[in-house]
Every structure is written in C-alpha cells, then in structure tokens.
Amino acid sequence: MSPFSTLIVILLSAIMIHHLPLASATQWCVASPTSKDRQLEDNLGFACANGVDCRPILEGGACYNPNTPLSHASYVMNAYYATHERTDYACKFFFPNSAMLTTTNPSYGSCVYA
C-alpha cells in the first residue's frame, strides 16, 4: 500500500471511530413503576437498615420531593446498588419483583443519584 493510501485509510478510520455510538456502562437501580407500595416500603426499610444514608429522602432533603414511595425507594435502592459494586445481584436479588436497571440517569434538580 502506498503512503498516500495508508494515510487515507488512517484518516477514514479515525473519522469512523469518532462517529461510532458509545455504549453507556453506567446503570442505575430504580423501583419499577408497577411495584406495590408495600414492597417499596420494605425496600426502604431494608436499604436504610443496611448502610444507606437515607437523609436525602427525609423532609427537607434533596430527594424528599416528590414525596412518594416510588421516588424514595428508587433513591435508596440505587444508593444500596451503588455501594454494592453495581451488580445485577445487588439490585434484583435484594429488591425482588420491584427493581429494574436503567441507563437513564434518574437524578433531578439537586437530587443526585450515585
């Protein structure tokens, strides 16, 4: 291959690689919208009793509003998941039939999900 052809191949490769979509490796564990409130309350109790800082979901906290079991459970479930190496197991095993993984960052306003 001539030096010119080699240069063209390198340039085209660089352009193509630059335009490839990148897969997001970050996932968040949140409550499934079909979860029952009782299950979400159990999830809240479990996470808060097992090392999760639940202060952000208390009144006046950054994640208090919306004040719903779904929103509060999503925050603490993800906090538990994030402190347990973000494994599927840490999400779906400890929060059965009420958790789902998402690649969409659920953070809003000053409520930041880890």
TrEMBL record:
SMART domains: X8. Keywords: Glycoprotein, GPI-anchor, Lipoprotein, Membrane, Signal. InterPro entries: X8 (IPR012946), X8_dom_prot (IPR044788). This is Glucan endo-1,3-beta-D-glucosidase. Coiled coil: none annotated. GO terms for cellular component: plasma membrane; plasmodesma; side of membrane. It comes from the Eukaryota. Residues 27-113 form the X8 domain. It holds the Pfam family X8. It is found in: Cell membrane. Its main location: membrane. It is a lipid-anchor; GPI-anchor.
